[in-house]
Amino acid sequence: MFENMDKINAVITGVGGFVPEDVLTNEDISKLVDTTDEWIMTRVGIKERRILKGEGVGTSYMGIRAVKQLLEKTKVNPDEIEVILTATTTSDHHFPTTSSIIAYHTGCKNAMTFDLQGACAGFLYALETGANYIRSGRYTKVVVVAGDKMTAITDYQDRSTCPLFGDACGAVLLEPTTEEVGVMDTILRTDGVGYSHLIMKSGGSAYPPSHETVDNREHFVFQDGKYVFKYAVSYMADVAAEIAERNHLTHDDIAWIVPHQANLRIIDATAKRLGVDMEKVMINIQKYGNTSAGTIPICLWEWEDKLKKGDNLILAAFGAGFTWGAIYLKWGYDGKKA
Ligand SMILES: CC(C)(COP(=O)(O)OP(=O)(O)OC[C@H]1O[C@@H](n2cnc3c(N)ncnc32)[C@H](O)[C@@H]1OP(=O)(O)O)[C@@H](O)C(=O)NCCC(=O)NCCS
């Protein structure tokens, strides 16, 4: 199919998504902890978030629905999918992988499956990884899933974190092309200064679960918000500016900024740094909160009908680790796939 000299680009050829129906409003949260709608809206920009309810229902529940929709929209047979790669911090279990559960329930019998953990930057890490499978020339249909059931690890007694998070999952299909579209450039970074400042301390191999870890509420997200904010606000804007500059993209060339949705003030800072008007920034934090790896694919899913082939998108995210990064994506098709 491809001549030796052709450069293979990895392009997104479809988007699926799933957000749970149940809504948790700021009003609801103010009945659980000492907070107000006004504080949450001014400090973070979240009005409500979706929560996945039900016994034994994990991230795969949303991933399965996102992938089923993706396969329907792209009219791709599940047998053709070669790789399913899921970015999540809230896998259904430590093992087996969430990707293997998603593959089973979507009929993707021929896929290799694995999970990847990049916290809130997980979609960017997974998109670059999936793109490399395509660029290698050995794979032609890679599904990248990203999302989290953050409410499973949210402490509804901690007012500094419980308003922040929600549940959602998105999925994209990556295919090869020789056209100049797709994942054009990527910067991914890590800095361990974040380690103890944004962490779910227990439940892993360092601190296995015990009565004590449960009593100490160590199976929930801990975040030193001020410390994390300081890094997030500069690192996310820096990396977005760096990728725009090295690809010679001015604010006029950028069709959309697709930022991780953790805090409206961080999103604002990123847009300002790039000199891009807020109308060109995808923002749905008010409806969904921070769904960790889910935020960016859910934005692409919601904005799909407005996207046109050749649009320059700058994706940027920051999360625990710290891990962060930016991707320059040239969109590959016009409008919404039915
Ligand atoms: C979490 C975050 C919204 C908190 O906002 P902030 O302006 O930094 O707020 P602070 O944590 O400094 O708290 C300010 C005050 O509000 C109080 N406060 C915290 N949560 C509150 C709430 N839900 N309602 C009311 N008051 C609250 C604090 O107790 C503190 O009071 P004090 O000054 O009397 O001690 C913000 O720090 C943030 O967005 N951090 C980064 C998140 C992020 O990007 N994470 C990475 C990706 S997951």
Q: Characterize the overall form.
A: globular
- Describe the sheet with the most strands: 5 strands, mixed
Contiguous uncertain segments of 5+ residues: none
Whole-angstrom Rg = 19 Å
Which compounds are bound in this model?
coenzyme A
Query: Helices and strands, in N-to-C order?
Result: EEHHEHEHEHEEEEHEHEHHHEE
Q: Strand content of the residues, in percent?
A: 15-25%
Instruction: Tell me the span between the first and last alpha carbons.
Output: 27 Å
Mean pLDDT: 97
For this entry, give a set of tags.
single chain; alpha/beta; five-stranded mixed beta sheet; 30% helix; binds coenzyme A
Characterize this entry briefly.
This protein has 338 residues and is an alpha/beta fold. Helix content is 30%, strand content 23%. The radius of gyration is 19 Å and the shape is globular.
Task: Give a description of the structure.
- With 338 residues, the protein is of the alpha/beta class.
- The chain contains 10 helices and 13 strands.
- It has helices spanning 26-30, 37-43, 59-74, 98-106, 122-135, 211-215, 225-246, 264-274, 285-288, 295-303; strands at 9-18, 23-25, 48-50, 83-87, 112-116, 142-149, 167-177, 182-190, 198-199, 222-223, 256-259, 312-319, 323-330.
- It has a 5-stranded mixed sheet with strand order 1-7-6-4-5, sandwiched between helices. The chain has a 4-stranded mixed sheet with strand order 8-13-12-11, sandwiched between helices.
- Helix 3 (59-74) crosses helix 4 and helix 7 packs parallel to helix 8 (264-274).
- The longest helix has 22 residues, at 225-246.
- The radius of gyration is 19 Å and the shape is globular.
- The two termini are 27 Å apart.
- Coenzyme A (COA) binds at residues 35, 39, 43-44, 120, 159-160, 163, 225-226, 228-229, 232, 262-263, 266, 290, 318-319.
